[in-house]
Design brief:
With 96 residues, the chain is mainly α. The protein is 41% helix and 0% strand. The chain has one domain.
Length: 96
């Protein structure tokens, strides 16, 4: 059987915030908080599902990472804003 990565995406199910079958595209670059405690917890890395700035992460990037990981059969995938960001993250992982 040949390797067909696109077949793995069909197992990745997403049910959106408003019941959409496909994930919505989040075009926000910054996010707001309803309470100062939630903002503090997010800055500390203790709040899941909250976003600070789209360069760090966004709902669209997280879904893309999940889809790429499912296609490649890996635990996770990292999505970067540019090719240079991807190259830099690899080089920094290799440096000791």
């Amino acid at each position: 059987m040949s390797f067909k990565p696109a077949n793995h995406i069909q197992d990745l199910q997403y049910f959106g915030e408003f019941g959409g079958v496909n994930p919505s595209i989040s075009d926000s670059s910054t996010y707001t908080f309803l309470s100062a405690k939630t903002m503090f917890d997010t800055f500390e890395g203790n709040a899941d599902g909250c976003y600070l700035y789209s360069r760090h992460s966004s709902p669209s990037n997280l879904y893309l990472g999940e889809a790429l990981a499912a296609m490649e059969g890996t635990e996770t995938a990292n999505v970067t804003a540019s090719g240079m960001g991807a190259i830099t993250s690899v080089l920094l992982q290799l440096c000791q």
